[in-house]
Amino acid sequence: MERYTVSKVVGKGSFGKAMLCKRRRDGKLCIIKQVDTARLGPRERREAQREAALLATMRHPNIVGYWESFLHGARGETLCIVMDYADGGDLYGYLKSRRGSPLPEERVLDWFVQITLALKHIHDRKILHRDLKSQNIFLTMSRVVKLGDFGIAKVLANTMDHARTAIGTPYYMSPEICQEKRYNHKSDMWSLGCVLYEMAALRHAFEGNDMRQLVAKICRGQPAPLPSRYSAALRALVAELLSKDAHARPGANAVLRQALVRDRIGGFLSQAQLQEEFSHTVLHGRVHDAVLPAAAAAAAAGGGSAMGAAAGTPGFVPPAGLAVDDRRAVAAAAALIARPAAAAR
Ligand SMILES: Nc1ncnc2c1ncn2[C@@H]1O[C@H](COP(=O)(O)OP(=O)(O)OP(=O)(O)O)[C@@H](O)[C@H]1O
Ligand SMILES: [Mg+2]
């Protein structure tokens, strides 16, 4: 903690307090989340620290970057997670500030695409968000949207479960979580549907006077129809994401494949990022699940150079039985992986 000076406490969330800080070395602003882990045993604390360290390896233009994490306090009981400071406030605050004035569909979709790209990035790397809500989505001055607080719920799963339910109303909780089933990536997709609904309707998809009523609405109710200014395609997407049955809900890759969304992807990721993001899906053996929008496919197929580099990768054999374009994408991805990690960032 000596490396930082605290400017002010910016808020208190479900897991602990968030402080605006300055790094002494270069004066860069950051947010430090402090979480009390005093109730954890040494093994659980190590596990929490390991999880937090994993989060720091995620890099994407649409996610709040984590810098580092460390234990602090006389007995190392406070876990500190250091992350980028998002300077434009959160989506919740922004939607509230509209005072009922609707957002153009274009803007809703542009922000939705960025959130979905962020979710794809973490899901492809087997990380679940677990706390997706408009308060954890940040706007920057340049109107880039960044997803924050991903994975923290898992890091702290053992510490704060009880405190968590006591703070805030879980508007974004999926039907399967209401039924105490296991959290999975489709539970994040439900929350994503709630956020999309909220951007269009400027209110929560499901509300209740108390927990019992909220759970009944989530499990059996239908949200009020979206304003008629929004397209049928956008309404259909909300309905799909809010399918009560988790299996019927699309995953992030399936959402990004939809025409409404797909054609916007190129506007938010550079050619290199597109290649990295969409080749990654291929690499994980889910070739037919891969999105590969036109721009990414072009980047992946980017001529002999990617293939050539991959061909020079020791032990690289493009999987048999794939279409030529898929083989090119895998080859390009192999070339990317052969590069030092730092160069890929
Ligand atoms: N990286 C960040 N950049 C800028 N502001 C942030 C950042 N992280 C959190 N905040 C702000 O700090 C306040 C507290 O955030 P915190 O994440 O602790 O609580 P929360 O989002 O309400 O709940 P949760 O713990 O479920 O995420 C919020 O107002 C939030 O907008
Ligand atoms: Mg938060």
Task: Give the full name of the CATH homologous superfamily of the largest domain.
Answer: Transferase(Phosphotransferase) domain 1
Assembly type of the chains comes to: single chain
CATH topology of the largest domain: Transferase(Phosphotransferase), domain 1
- Total beta-strand segments: 7
Distance between the termini: 27 Å
In the CATH scheme, the class of the largest domain would be Mainly Alpha
CATH architecture of the largest domain: Orthogonal Bundle
* SSE run: EEEHEEHHEEHHHHHHHHHHHHH
Sheet with the most strands: spatial strand order: 1-2-3-5-4
| β-strand amount | 5-15%
What's the shape? globular
Put simply, the count of helices is 16
The main β sheet shows up as: 5 strands, antiparallel
Structure overview:
The chain has 345 residues and is of the alpha+beta class. β6 and β7 form a beta hairpin. The chain is globular, with a radius of gyration of 21 Å. The C terminus is likely disordered. It contains 16 helices and seven strands. Strands 1-2-3-5-4 form a five-stranded antiparallel β-sheet, with helices on one face. Helices cover 44% and strands 13% of the residues. The structure holds adenosine-5'-triphosphate and magnesium ion. Adenosine-5'-triphosphate binds next to β1 and β5. Keywords: ATP-binding, Kinase, Nucleotide-binding, Serine/threonine-protein kinase, Transferase.
Features of this protein?
EC 2.7.11.1, Phosphorylase Kinase, domain 1, single chain, binds magnesium ion, alpha+beta, disordered C terminus, Transferase(Phosphotransferase), domain 1, Prot_kinase_dom, five-stranded antiparallel sheet, 13% strand, binds adenosine-5'-triphosphate, protein serine/threonine kinase activity
